[in-house]
Amino acid sequence: MDKKIKVKIVAPTKKIYEGEADLVIMRTKTGDLGVLKGHENLSTVLDLGILRIIEGDKEQKIALLGGFAEVSKEGVSILTDSAELYEDIDVERAIEAKKRAEKRIADKKESTDIKRAEIALKRALVRIELKK
After folding, report:
1. Are 26 and 78 in contact (CB under 8 A)?
2. What is the DSSP string of 20-69?
């Protein structure tokens, strides 16, 4: 009996990932969710975090910067505005983005969009965490 689950991650401009896994762990707005073959059907909103795709002794980690996931008997389908594979992340750039976001938040200028700065900070932190 095959215990693999199909996984597909799609962004507006390209397919990020397509393959099979034994286990998929994703960050949702209500916490982490692990999915195995045969999981109950569901749709969920994804939060910024690291998506883990585990197959045997291999683990693929992807910086998932929000989106939606649908789990069905066919597998896991993820629609996201942005996702980055480990090898595509420039950690130095992420560290600089983190510093800029922290500075904007700390300055508290009236013209600063604090919510946007907080999201930029979270994105940078996800990228940095993935590269550790």
Report:
1. yes
2. EESEEEEEETTEEEEE-TTPPPEEEEEEEEEEEEEETTEEEEEEEEEEEE
Among residues 40, 39, 67, the alpha carbon closest in space to that of 51 is found at 67
> How distant is the alpha carbon of residue 29 from its chain centre?
12
Across the range 100-119, mean pLDDT stands at 85
| Residue reference for tokens 């215990």 | 3
CA 101/CA 122 separation, integer angstroms: 9
Which positions ≥6 away from 40 have C-beta within 8 Å? 71
pLDDT digits (tens, 9 = 90+) for 21-70: 999 999 999 999 999 998 999 999 999 999 999 999 999 999 998 899 99
